[in-house]
Amino acid sequence: MEVIITSDYDEMSVVAARIIRRQIIRKPNSVLGLATGGTPLGTYKELIRMHREEGLDFSKVTTFNLDEYLGLPPSHDQSYNYFMQENLFKHININPANVHVPNGMAEDIDGYCTWYENEIRKAGGIDLQLLGIGSDGHIAFNEPGSSLGSRTRLKTLAESTIKDNARFFARENDVPRFAITMGVGTILEAREILLIANGEKKAAVCAEFIEGPVTARVTASALQLHPRVYVVLDEAAASKLEHADYYRWVQQEKQKLSGIASQVSFLRRPVAKK
Ligand code: GLP
After folding, report:
1. CATH code of the domain in which 137 resides
2. Ligand 1 pocket member 37 (CB < 6 A)
3. Is 258 contained in some domain?
4. For ligand 1, is residue 132 a contact (CB within 6 Å)?
5. Residue 143 CA to ligand 1 centre (angstroms)
6. Ligand 1 and 140: CB distance under 6 A
7. Mean pLDDT to the nearest integer, 64-84
8. Residue nearest to atom 10 of ligand 1 (CA)
9. For residue 128, is it within any domain?
10. pTM
C-alpha cells in the first residue's frame, strides 16, 4: 500500500483526482470503478474542473459503480445512480452508454448480479477502482463478516451503516436495509485501487485496515493483499496510524529518486488553497 498523507480534505481530493487523471491520460478508454458517499465529492468536483479547464476527456471512459440501495429507482434523490448523475456524470463528456450503476430495482437479483460481473469482465476489467470506507471498515457495502472472496450480490446493511447514512434521508427509517454491492473479491480484481478517507471519525478504522490484521471484520483490510493500492488520507484520518512518520518519509524519499520522482511528483505538487 502506498499511504499518502495530505493536509486536509481539499488536498486529499486533488491528489485523488490527479491519480484518476493520470489513469485516463495513460489509457483514454480506461475502465473506472466509482464510489459514492460524502468523501469522493471533492474528488469529483476536481475531475469536473479538470474536464472544463484542462479538457480532461471522458468520452472513451467506461465506469462501474460499486453499489446501489435495493428498492430505490434511479430517479430517487438518495439513489446512488442519482448521486452519480448529479455530482459527476452530467458535468463531464462521458457517454451514458458506458456508465454502469447497479440497478436497485432488479427483480431477479442473483441473475442481475451475475450480469453485472459479466459486464465488468466484458469491458476488460476495472483499471482503477475508487473507494471510500465506512466507519465499520466496509468497502462498497461489504459489511463486517463479508467473505473476502465475495462477488456482486445482495447485502443486508449493518445497523451502524444505516445510522451513518441516515444523514442523507429525511428519517432513519427511510434508509434502505439492503443493497446490491460488488464483492470484496470483485474489488480486489481491479488493476489499481485508490481509497480515500478524511476526518477524525475515520482515524481508528484507517489504522485498523492499514496496519491491523487482514480480517473479514474490517473488509477494507483485504486491500493489504492487493499489489497496487493508493490510500490518500487527510491528517485527521491519518492521526491514529502507528507508522505515519514512515509513510511521510517514503513520500519524501521517493521524490528524490530520479525516474520515480516523475511518477510521484505530480501527486505532491502544491495544491492551491481555495
Ligand atoms: C456508503 C458506501 C461506501 C462509502 C461509505 C462511506 O456506505 N456504500 O461506498 O465508502 O458509505 O461514506 P462517506 O464517504 O459518506 O463517509
Report:
1. 3.40.50.1360
2. yes
3. no
4. yes
5. 11
6. yes
7. 97
8. 132
9. yes
10. 0.94
Residue labelled with grid coordinates 507508522: 243
Domain span including residue 8: 2-247
Output the CA 257–ligand 1 centroid distance in Å: 36
Give the residue-averaged pLDDT of 236-245: 98
In a domain, 165, yes or no: yes
DSSP output for 138-152: -BTTB-TT--TT--S
Cα 192 to averaged position of ligand 1 atoms, centre (Å): 19
- Residue at 162 is within a domain: yes
**Residue 42 exposure: Cα atoms within 13 Å on the Cβ side:** 18
pLDDT tens string 179-212: 999 999 999 999 999 999 999 999 999 999 999 9
| Residue in 138, 105, 126, 118 with CA at minimum distance from that of residue 39 | 138
Cα distance between residue 131 and residue 270, in whole Å: 24
Catalytic residue annotation: 67, 136, 138, 143
Confidence of residue 252 (pLDDT cuts 50, 70, 90): confident
> Which pLDDT value is given to residue 261?
47
* Distance between CA atoms of residues 233 and 9, nearest Å: 8
pLDDT attached to residue 254 = 84
